[in-house]
Amino acid sequence: MEKVHLLTLGCPKNLADSELMLGALLRAGFEVTLDPGEAQVLVVNTCAFIEAAKKESIGAILEASQVKRRGGGRRLVVAGCLAQRYGAELREELPEVDIFVGTGNFLDLPELLRRTETPEARPIPYAGAAHLLPTMDEAPRVKTGDFFTAYLKISEGCNHKCAFCIIPKIRGLHESRGPDDIVAEARSLAEVGVRELNLIAQDLTAYGRDFKPQSSLAGLLPRLADVAGIRWIRLLYCYPNFVTDELLETIAELPEVVKYIDMPLQHADDAVLRAMRRERSGAALSKLLERIRRKIPGVALRTSFIVGFPGEDDAAFERLLEFVRREQFDRVGVFTYSREENTDAFDMAAQVPERVKRERRAALMEAQAEISLNKNRELVGRDIEVLVEGSTAGRATRLRGRTPAQAPEIDGMVILKGDAEPGDFVSARVERALSYDLHAVVTGAIVN
Q1: In 10 A of CB 335, how many CB atoms?
Q2: CATH number belonging to domain 149-377
């Protein structure tokens, strides 16, 4: 029995693909190991969204190739977005890689590994497909990470034509998973202890629009909320144009759906938004945010922005900065524009120097840090609900957790004093506020 070590880079959607890959490998008789040194098969599931992600992926591949060289008979597999985007070119640049599988053919990996069991059978020609959306029966996943939380992919691909984005060319056009299959997976996750479902897709709000008759995310959420054992359902990546009143009312009405919306806006200057092909003006975005807050009182809003997009001058950036100060988001992520070939923005005039991009990112993050600190200070003395994740690094006497307003991995955390176990929901009183984290003491357990 050969052992497989799999490293996942990039976004939660990649993690979901990795769990499907592991499921296919285990079903084919492979064994999974956390130690790359004892693996006969090394798999790197890559990201290629922006330049920094590509560099990280190449670095991980080169590290894995060093491990491969230290042991005879090992095979190295490169999977995911980098393989999908550059598989043919990388075949020439990285001869140490035995197999490239893209985002749409990674379930073929067991058969490809069998075909490369002898050195003379390697490497094999690269062949990728845009995306894969198998049912649970076709590809049961292997749950990794914390037992109490899981990402649940509800669709694949994207129909938007944002000028800066390569994802549709990597992942293909949008396709929704069948609702029965999604609910069945949610039940299977709940049966093994999952209490929090984080819904993921390139665009959650496009869910069901490709069905005949059309369906919607608002129609799916009540079915997921009925799954026994699930306490929190979180929405990660909603596209502004498709945030309907029906969806907002559903979020407000269902206790299991946390009052948290992740909705990347990318910018707020009208000219930059048009150049990005985001289809909305800054004023329209402000109206949307007002409507969301009116429909869902107390909602936590997370967004992300791109600074340094071609044509973003000082005045455009100042309008974005003022927009952030005015709208008072709960969470903000800021990216510097990455110039990606085969996107419409690649050849645009007025490219912004890297130094200016970095300065603008720092200024926007500084403004948001002040907003976040003020919002956190308002919680001091209040009782909040917290999902306990485990102990803090280096402090076994302290626990860490998250509130409904904190998504895993991308938001801050709550540092807790008190007794609780990972996966517990507790009530905690906030004693201290930092820019992104909270300090609190456990006041009781929440039973559900």
Answers
A1: 18
A2: 3.80.30.20
